[in-house]
Write a structure and sequence with these properties.
With about 350 residues, this protein is of the alpha+beta class. It is built from seven helices and 19 strands. The chain has three domains: about 70 residues, SH3 type barrels, CATH 2.30.30; about 150 residues, Smr-associated-like (Immunoglobulin-like); about 100 residues, Ribosomal Protein S8, Chain: A, domain 1, CATH 3.30.1370.110. Helices cover about 20% and strands about 35% of the residues.
Length: about 350
């Protein structure tokens, strides 16, 4: 959809409403959420608000609720083919205390699957099944924090879906121990939010009682996932003039991004930094730049972790390293591009 300045829009994944204040540039528009807050948002993450749309304001005794569609489709351009994941994204109260987790199944692949999900603990029982398209996510539901604090487990079964039928059924069981769970903090694919991420890796197939070794081997070979041939990457057109003026350093400190006197609430800072980074990397590739330096500072490490996740999935990145540099110390990462 083509957005223009003045359009009223809804942010799909937060439920917030705002106004577009710029025309799209590289798929990004500036959205005004309040008098002081303007953030960059990918146009695929917006929906236009119709004239008869009236958001309901909560009463004093009633908190605002966002009704989420369990099926969330993402643009094809965001697919990195990194696999299937179960993600737990923290939900916080106004005191920034975690009160629960939204659990999602994520299909960051080019396959279509049928899934069965079950989570059973002393405090909660969740059973879901359905269809998960390529480049999509499914909201399993809200998982109470007590489920994580006390040991529980979930089982996920996936089957590849073809018009000819269902193939390659496999499953995975994960024990949600607090120590293991909280060590899985990572950037969640598609959502660009920090959460707790579990990659789907099917459990080893066990030989059934009475099954011959020949039959067992045949069943493994039959269920072996099909490998996709890697596609050739497009070679970007290089503009010599623009390349000559392109700077190979990007400072992502929020003070370097915002205009003097401009302020931004803390929860939007990481989203803004990543949007700026995405734009810069796209320009670097387009201009045929071979090496860039991303200045992220030291801080808590969340920005660096998010950047490393993106760099690891970028097909144009040849190598990247965070070593001591005379100009930046350990607060910058050197990136080599193809």
């Amino acid at each position: 959809m083509l957005f223009k300045a003045g359009d009223k829009v809804l942010l799909k994944y937060t439920g917030e409403s705002g106004e577009v204040v710029s025309y799209p540039e590289m798929g990004i528009v500036q959205v005004k959420l309040s008098e002081e807050i303007i953030i960059p948002v990918n146009v695929d993450d917006l929906s236009q608000i119709k004239e008869n749309f009236h958001p309901v304001s909560p009463t004093k005794n009633q908190s605002a609720q966002i009704v989420e569609n369990p099926n969330i489709d993402f643009p094809t351009a965001k697919i990195r083919n990194s696999g299937f994941f179960t993600a737990f994204i923290p939900q916080q109260n106004k005191y920034e205390e975690i009160i629960a987790y939204n659990a999602y199944l994520i299909n960051d692949s080019k396959s279509q699957v049928i899934f069965e999900f079950s989570l059973i603990s002393d405090n909660q029982k969740t059973l879901k099944d359905g269809y998960l398209a390529s480049g999509s996510a499914y909201l399993i539901g809200k998982i109470q924090k007590e489920v994580i604090e006390h040991q529980s487990e979930y089982t996920l079964q996936l089957s590849d879906y073809f018009t000819s039928g269902i193939e390659n059924t496999r499953s995975q069981t994960i024990k949600l121990k607090p120590k293991t769970f909280f060590s899985r903090e990572d950037l969640v694919p598609f959502f660009d939010k920090l959460g707790y991420l579990f990659e789907f890796k099917s459990d080893p197939i066990k030989k059934e009682e009475g099954e011959s070794l020949v039959e067992f081997t045949k069943s493994i070979l039959t269920n072996k996932p099909k490998k996709e041939k890697p596609k050739q990457k497009n070679v970007p057109h290089v503009d010599p003039l623009k390349r000559a003026v392109f700077t190979n350093e990007l400072d992502l400190h929020i003070e370097a991004i915002l205009e003097p006197g401009q302020k931004l609430e803390p929860q939007y800072i990481l989203q803004l930094q990543l949007a700026v980074f995405d734009q810069y990397m796209a320009e670097a590739v387009r201009h045929g730049i071979e090496k860039v330096y991303i200045v992220h500072g030291l801080g808590t490490g969340k920005l660096k972790a998010a950047l490393f996740k993106r760099l690891s999935l970028n097909p144009y990145v040849l190598d990247y390293k965070n070593e001591y540099l005379p100009s930046f110390g350990f607060g910058a990462t050197e990136v080599k591009l193809r």
